From TrEMBL:
GO-annotated cellular components: mitochondrial membrane; proton-transporting ATP synthase complex
Subcellular location: Mitochondrion membrane
Keywords for the protein's UniProt record, in alphabetical order: ATP synthesis, CF(0), Hydrogen ion transport, Ion transport, Membrane, Mitochondrion, Transport
Major location category of this protein: mitochondrion
A Pfam family assignment: ATP-synt_G
Keyword Methyltransferase: no
Name this protein carries in UniProt: Mitochondrial ATP synthase subunit G protein
InterPro entries: ATP_synth_F0_gsu_mt
Family from the record: Belongs to the ATPase g subunit family.
GO molecular function, one term: proton transmembrane transporter activity
Organism this protein belongs to: Brassica campestris
Amino acid sequence: MASKLIQVQSKACEASKFVAKHGTSYYRQLLEKKKNYIQEPASVDKCQELSKQLLYTRLASIPGRCETLRKEVDYAKNLWKNRTDLKVEDAGVAALFGLECFAWYCAGEIIGRGFTFTGYYP
């Protein structure tokens, strides 16, 4: 176990050195490549305008998302009506989806408690 820790530490050290050596050039290349997305001059007013555009664009997409949700619910209702024709693969996908939802719920609970695991210990 200690040897694994030393290996991980050495890999982390190598990665840190690589980033320190090449990080600045990568950063500059990335900014140059994505220059058309950079707003010049950067001002508080322009940032507020862009944030409002994002908000209202997201709000405008809600009806389309609701329609997609309705289609998904109708599909699930249809599957439930014809559950006798349900294949094992479909049931497995549904079970994995339910398990994923439960895992995200548990992760959210843990994050909400400040990354602490609580329980009753007599």
